[in-house]
Amino acid sequence: MQNFRYDYIVATYSLHHLTDDQKKDFFLELRNHLKENGKIIIGDVAFETRKDLEQCKLKAGDTWDNDEIYFVVEELRKDFPGLSFTKMSGCAGVLILE
């Protein structure tokens, strides 16, 4: 089986069903499929800090989906220090892993 390499791997609103450990493992696997200087780009419900997530959760009240596991960038940076994040709204953003 061929091992394809990509310049970009893009996912939107599809990874918040993975646990944090599954996200880490998935990112590590995806990196194996990038060309040199390739990027993984993820648009999803995401927060810079756990505090930001908790504030959004309080604001959302009963509409918060407790079955989903949203991205907390500061926690992911422990394993992926080069991870960048651009906040797009109060509850979403774009993560880029090179």
Architecture overview:
The chain is α/β, with parallel strands linked by helices and 98 residues long. The protein has one domain: Vaccinia Virus protein VP39 (Rossmann fold), CATH 3.40.50. The mean pLDDT is 94.
Count of helices? 3
Number of strands: 5
N-to-C SSE string, H for helix and E for strand: EHEHEHEE
CATH homologous superfamily descriptor? Vaccinia Virus protein VP39
General shape: elongated
* Class inferred from helices and paired strands: alpha/beta
Please indicate the count of domains: 1
**What's the main sheet like?**
5 strands, mixed
Overall mean confidence score, pLDDT: 94
CATH C-level? Alpha Beta
Estimate percent helicity: 25-40%
Indicate the proportion of strand residues: 25-35%
CATH architecture name: 3-Layer(aba) Sandwich
Q: Radius of gyration from the CA trace?
A: 14 Å
What distance separates the N and C termini?
Answer: 25 Å
Uncertain regions: pLDDT < 50 for 5+ in a row? none
What is the CATH T-level topology? Rossmann fold
Structure summary:
The protein is of the alpha/beta class and 98 residues long. It has helices at 20-31, 50-60, 73-76; strands at residues 6-12, 34-47, 71-72, 84-87, 92-97.
